[in-house]
Amino acid sequence: MHANEADFAKYLLEQRVLTGITTPDLRAKFLGKTHALPFMLGPVGFLGLYAGEGEMKAARAAAKAGVGFCLSCFSIASITRLAKQVPAQPMFQLYVLKDRSLALDMMGAARAAGVKTLFVTVDCAVTAIRERDVRNGFRTLTRVPPVLALKLAQRPRWCLEMLRQGKLRVEALEGRKEFGRGVLAQAAALSARIDPGLAWKDLAWVRTQWPGKIILKGIMHPQDANWAQQLGMDGIVVSNHGGRQLDGAGSTISQLADIAAAAPEIEVLVDGGFRRGADIVKALALGASGVMLGRAMAYALAAGGEAGVGAIIAHLAKEIEIALALMGCPDIATLRAEGARFVRQV
Ligand SMILES: Cc1cc2nc3c(=O)[nH]c(=O)nc-3n(C[C@H](O)[C@H](O)[C@H](O)COP(=O)(O)O)c2cc1C
Questions:
Q1: CB 91 within 8 A of CB 73
Q2: What is the mean pLDDT of residues 177-181?
Q3: Residue 34 in marked binding region
Q4: What average pLDDT does the chain have?
Q5: Which residue CA neighbors atom 28 of ligand 1 most closely?
Q6: N or C: which end of the chain has fewer CB within 10 A?
């Protein structure tokens, strides 16, 4: 987790002067579309716990800014309701479940909601020990202990937003009593059903079931990237799940160039530790076609709701614009095509 953020310092941007470039063009082509900016909002579970109707707020902020939004299958709002309430084409993230019929149902709901791009997350077959989740009782909590009650009392607005949402639940599991009642029980039950034995042959099966684009999320090795390409995937996300899975894995920015070189025919996105516009500029110069935000979006949502997410998007856009102008780079297409001219490893 720390390496994801720290390793951006190993790459330097080239400052060039007197180029006359003042307002670079930040539009970026990835996932078959031209986006207003070269980044999108990645799948983070339970955005509806960061703010009331959090999924809607994040998706709305993304739509207003012309950037993509991917809904996690671990969400309070369903993809069906999201597509109805937010005027933009959402993307959807899936964990392949042991119960393939449930995975198929989720894919079916996504298709019906107009989803064209499916992110299949493959780095969570085995869930790591998340020490903060254990300490905070996330997923195991059955009652509110005094320490938590005290913390909640200090966040009346959040409490009010949660109460307004009514009973929190995973809408996609409506009518499936076997997943238990309440959002934490459902989250735990869903987690337990992720297929720990998932293998490449299963991905071939997903390929036959989904007619749109499939992006494998959680690739950290050039060989795996190459297999994804050979299996007919449309792209990958170089990701270590924000440093939440394999403790000791490398940072994504340091593996990006090698991985991109191993899968030249498919789309290569990246996430992990992106906090600054300059971080995004470095990734694009090193071979990524787009960047995905995790915590930057989630924290903005918690702090300021839809306006908070809008603000972080605008802030990053401004930083990218300034960086490109100071580098004498006219647009994102040039940054990507001539990456080696703009970034240097130290
Ligand atoms: C709290 C949290 C929940 C997440 N939930 C999901 C999820 O449901 N599905 C998924 O594919 N990735 C999930 N991720 C991983 C993110 O999509 C992304 O890979 C990661 O957050 C990127 O790193 P960053 O947070 O440093 O930007 C989650 C990450 C965090 C921090």
A1: no
A2: 90
A3: no
A4: 96
A5: 44
A6: C
Question: Do the Cβ atoms of 77 and 174 come closer than 8 Å?
Answer: no
Query: Residues 6 or more apart from 183 whose CB is under 8 A from it?
Result: 46, 49, 76, 168, 169, 170
Cβ(325)–Cβ(23) below 8 Å: yes
Single out the residue of 164, 165, 191 nearest to residue 180, CA to CA: 191
188 within domain boundaries: no
pLDDT of residue 173: 93
Ligand 1 in reach of 43 Cβ (< 6 A) = yes
In a domain, 94, yes or no: yes
Q: How many domains does the chain have?
A: 1
Q: Is residue 169 part of a domain?
A: no
Residue 344 known to bind ligand? no
The answer to whether position 58 is within a domain reads yes
Catalytic residue (choose from 2, 35, 221, 241): 241
How far CA 121 is from CA of 29, 197, 216, 237, 314, in Å, comes to: 22, 14, 6, 9, 28
Whether the predicted pLDDT of 142 surpasses 80: no
pLDDT for 145: 84
Residue in 282, 225, 214 with CA at minimum distance from that of residue 70: 214
Residues 1 and 244: their CA atoms lie apart, in Å, by: 7
Reading the block at residue 303, the tokens are 């702090």
Q: Which range marks the domain in which residue 279 is found?
A: 2-128+194-345
| Position 137 confidence tier, pLDDT thresholds 50, 70, 90 | confident
Give the CATH number, domain containing residue 271. Answer: 3.20.20.70
pLDDT tens, residue by residue, 31-60: 999 999 999 999 999 999 999 999 999 999
Proportion of the chain above pLDDT 90, given as a percent: 89
Strands 343-345 and 11-13: antiparallel
